[in-house]
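Lay summary

Proteins are chains of building blocks that fold into shapes. Our project writes down both the chain and a compact code for its shape. Here are two examples, one after the other.
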Amino acid sequence: MVVQKSESIVSTAKARFLRIPPRKARYVADLIRGRTVREALDLLMLTPRPSAVPAIRKLLLSAVSNVDRKAHSDTDNLVVSDICVDGGPILKRIQPRAMGRAFRIRKRTCHITIGLEKQ
């Protein structure tokens, strides 16, 4: 999935190669898409997804701090316009199983991109 660069996007932040499965991160991303930054942070505090919430919260705060303060002095009316969770490379590990067989374990990673715009 490609994030479209829109003229109204004020700030972006990216986190790459996170050791979170994309499916778990997409659940949290869908919760905060289209909400204001304050609502999104409050929602992340109450969401019971301990694997994805800290990373997305940290990335959201990074996107807020990336806002150009001279052009946009007020950060209270920022909206999470684009949040995209893409799959990253898969780490492949092997676990021994019965009768000499091998069981492949796939440890998934993801790339997350957040875009903020004015309300």
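And here is the second example, written the same way.
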Amino acid sequence: MLELARWGAQIEKYFSAKHQRYQPMDIEWAKDGKTKELFIVQARPETIHAAADKKVYKEYRLSSTSTVLVMGAAVGTKIASGKVRLIKSPKELSRFQKGEILVTKITDPDWEPIMKIASAIVTDEGGRTSHAAIVSRELGIPCIVGSERATRTLKDGQMITVDCSSGEVGKVYEGNLPFEIKEHHLDKLPKTRTKVMVNIGAPDEAFKNYYLPAQGVGLGRLEFIIASHIKVHPNALLQYAKLKSSALKKAIDRLTPGYTDKKQFYIDELAEGIAKIGAAFWPNEVIIRFSDFKTNEYRKLLGGDAYEPIEENPMLGWRGASRYYDEKFKDAFGLECIAMKKVREDMGLQNVIPMIPFCRTPEEGQKVIKIMETHGLDRARDKTLRVYVMCEIPSNILRVDEFLDVFDGMSIGSNDLTQLTLGLDRDSGIVTHIANEKDASVKQLIKTVIQKCLVRKKYIGICGQAPSDYPDFAEFLVSEGITSISLNPDTVIKTLSVIAEKEKNK
């Protein structure tokens, strides 16, 4: 990797000098399987991204929806409408017309001439690193991969709308739906005293949203990496040699090619996912929350039913900090710590800060800190390391001084804090109408913890849903002097203006 990086820098320098301006390059390389030698096989000026106006952020939004015909992994953040052109083999490529939507099983380099004139692409197979996904990113067109049934569901000539604007899942809607493109001039956005951060789920979202006017990541979730990339319960990997089910072993083997040490697979996948987020927002602070799956969610992982109890209300059960020091999960938490240490020390991403979720008492917090220390995450040894805790239980506020004796700061989880303050199960749709995060009792608790953290000179932010949903809630947080507000990517720009205006009139 270092050799390729050096070559890439040399090539870029050469072409920049030749053109007498900075010239980013599209470089392809190969490695000889026998001699292990590296070769540069192609280098050409990169034009699509280089020509884009980096000061303008285009936000795509559907004005209405219709029947969802197909879903898959979204590539890009755009929306496009057009007629379906179903292509089953390279022999049919000549049928494709400019502006149509390419629907096919999978693409390869021979298809690139028609991909360049497509308004969107939908495939049955492939993932985010497939040929269709890579080329679509380069071309800047929306693409949905891995839909499994697009070629069976969509018909030639059918009018559809491909929507990749709403996160990881892309949707194909029936008909030609109206949508708007809103341009935000990033260089004209107001500056704020309150640090505006962004919530990131899957690591790929970091690359999509790195250019937002956000000063780091207020919440990165390990659950997305575990569910999407690992897919196996950590205890099943730790106890792989003792597994009695040959079917389970075979399933794990299919997910972990090249790994005889299965726990190393878990560590490497976690570390890679964390590092993507940390690198995308370097040098800004990136807060990564350790796993906060509930028992019913852990059971869905491969092998999970052997290690997880069935709870009547998992929301209030074995989750967060209580798992980390439990003998039944302590070793699995150790793998998360090792991955975090690898990111911070081996990869040098010291802007990554670990955070403990759902910590019911300061005593629990002390137990978790000790386990972290045994795996190398030791603040006495690493003076740059800080450890935050989620503030999402009334006890976190009622015993705030004791929690702040253990941790370096708090991040408010308004969703859980609301349910536990008002006695609501947020997974139940029956009673959720009673109140939301703007309830006076919740706001009083938030006001109290902000004031206490400011007095103690400790970090205090919020990563819950409330400021993304309610602009007036963001105004309330600013008026109380919160350090940072972390928002969902699609609300960063509009909420930034709200925060700036509130600060102006404060």
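What can we say about the second shape? The chain has three domains: 2-51, 56-183, 189-505.
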